[in-house]
Amino acid sequence: MKIAASFAAAVALVQSASAHYIFQQLSVGSTKYPVFQYIRQNSNYNSPVTDLASNDLRCNVGASGANTQTVAVKAGESITFTLDTAVYHQGPISVYMSKAPSSAASYDGSGNWFKIKDWGPSFSGSSSSWPMYLSYTFNLPACIANGEYLLRIQSMGIHNPYPAGDPQFYISCAQISVSGGGSVTPGNQVKIPGFIKETDPGYTANIYSNFKSYTIPGPSVFSCNGAPGGDDGGSTNPPTTTLQTSARPSSSTQNPPTNTQPGNCASLWGQCGGSGYTGPKCCATGTCKATNDFYSQCVQ
After folding, report:
1. Would you indicate the residue range of the signal peptide (predicted)?
2. Backbone angles phi and psi of 201, in degrees to 5
3. CATH code reported for the domain at 23-248
4. Structure pTM?
5. Nearest-CA neighbor of 62 among 41, 81, 46?
6. Distance from C-alpha of 274 to C-alpha of 270, rounded to nearest angstrom
7. Sign for the pseudo-dihedral over CA of 88, 93, 97, 98
8. DSSP character at residue 107
9. What gap in Å lies between CA 136 and CA 42, rounded to an integer?
10. Of the ranges 2-11, 102-111, 160-169, 289-298, which one carries the lowest mean pLDDT score?
């Protein structure tokens, strides 16, 4: 029985990984460092945060600096975040920074944050393409002050439209020590939580219905020259996903079959159905809820 239970747990973890993901590895320039050496390791595996009022929105559940090293970087240097698997859910990617009062390792992220990079969708006719990559590369601002920072990356999955479902935040924070910088204090600083509201258009967007434009939630992107930061490329491994958005598929035809074998079912928040989906079609925890013809998810 113990062997069977262990096997079932392992299967559940694998199934969860098929739908969820985590930013786990940092590169500075051309140097790639070990997994979680400079990124705070969370305690909720690869599950998302959904509560807009939670402090877990800062660096994820259980992520602290106690066992995380801080890497030395130069202002303006190229940084890459790499995931365990490519981003699976449609939605924007954003990068934020927050200057630590002293050390990054002891900082809880309760101070001010500013955004330095966005990746959003591109539109062509009735379809949209999202930047669903394995790695995301960008440059630190060259003008920011020297010191230690939390460097936060976030994927906000909006595949299960609000209010029927809540956007899912996949978050990681790296600890960096910046040198060679300037003296500019970034504007448009925000607190996390509090940087995104339930009424923000980018939070409530329905990507399956008349989806022709999109505003990424949060503050504007800080740029040293004062120009707005772009949401263009800068990522590696760019197999973008194209989603037809001319009309929202009806959810009435999506009735995921049940399965009486929990060991073969998707874990909580995992995908459990959808057109073309070949994975588990039942939930080990929660209920399989259809959002549309393309996506069903295990929810509580």
Report:
1. 1-19
2. -55, -35
3. 2.70.50.70
4. 0.75
5. 41
6. 12
7. negative
8. -
9. 19
10. 2-11
